[in-house]
Amino acid sequence: MRRLQIATAVLVLWMAGTAAFAQPATQKAAQQVRADGYYKDLFMDGGCSLNSYPDLPAADWLGLSMEQISTAPRLEMTRLDTLAQNDRLVGNALDENGILLYPDGAPRFRAVYLNGGKALGHTRSLTAEGRAHFRTYLQNGGSIVGTCAGAFMVSLGAVRDTGYVPRPDYLCLWPGWTVGTGLEKSATGMRVEPGSPLLRYYDFGGDMQIDSVRHNGGCYAYMEENVPAGTEVLLRYIADTLQLKKPIHDKVSAWAWKESAQTGRVVVIGSHPERMVEGDRLELMAALLRYAMDGNGEARLKGVLENGVAREMVRTTSDNDPAFTRIGDRQYHHFAVDVPRGVKEITVELAAPAKWTDRFDLWLFADAEDFAFRENARWKNVGHGTDKHFTLPVEGPGRYYISVYCATTVDTVDSFYGEQYTGRTDVLNGVPYILKVSW
Question: Which of 81, 225, 323, 326 is the most exposed place for a label (fewest CB within 10 A)?
């Protein structure tokens, strides 16, 4: 037990140290988690050693925007598959931070779905840098959904008859442990845990169970000891009629965890509902996706603007200074300004550095009550180009909210490895700008 506690502590500390782009909590968070401010809803990881599929039925049914990475089947993979995967997930010259992250380390997709397959083979193929990107993604507000191998990958490792087996080469997103079921090429029922948050979305026929969910070498959550605080039980296996070597009946088959209001949510299941196209099993996969995205981290302030002081947002990913890093495609940067008594109006000015003017479309928003998004902002300027300004009346002393939004984005074309970016790929490393408020 003492060795387990030490191993767990070391892994948790290591995880915290890898979130290089994580930003501190701010004084105020948005009142609701919003879909706006991400490049797309979902990224499906069907990379090395994972199953690759052309679609995700539940995502299609929900109308989610999605991209994916696909590779050759495990027995046919070559070095080219690893190179193609990591060119996109780890980074390249055109996209220094990889497609999951904006230049400042914020999540570019609302959720990442981890397919089934071989957990350790996939996470090792990502390299230490790629695994760190996933941890940064979660810490900065992106959510994770995983099925089967995806559930193994998010854990610290496995519990076996011989004891705990730490897996530092896993993604280590949920500080808990999994147990392999030993059940292959079969199916089990699932009992919906009373009070499960999945019931917010569907009632699954009203009988609190889901029949015949495919299972192939998956896992369950180890809940006997050292259960991470905040872990939520979503479903349990129904397997009392199966002749099994390992008793998995009533073990936790699906679970969720969210560390704080600023981080994303992990939602995983040890089985395979991802290919279902109808009925309770389709609703199950849809509910997992919805609960994950509803658990995105709340919006954060980049900083508080000072009267007459230009805020230069010109740093790049490699500068490791997210508070002053460039903006990405379809991303918001949020700021606040504290206006003193006696001020009647303030002027907000947005400009690009020399040689960047009007190469991109940046929009400017402001609100007197909350983070300024396009649907709630009281003041807005959404014309073409980078340079914007407006003067807004001040109704009294207090905090006002300013945001910059990058409307320029990439185009995509289909390829063997999934979508490839074309068009405005120069936006991927971020657009620099200068913001100033004065009165």
Answer: 225
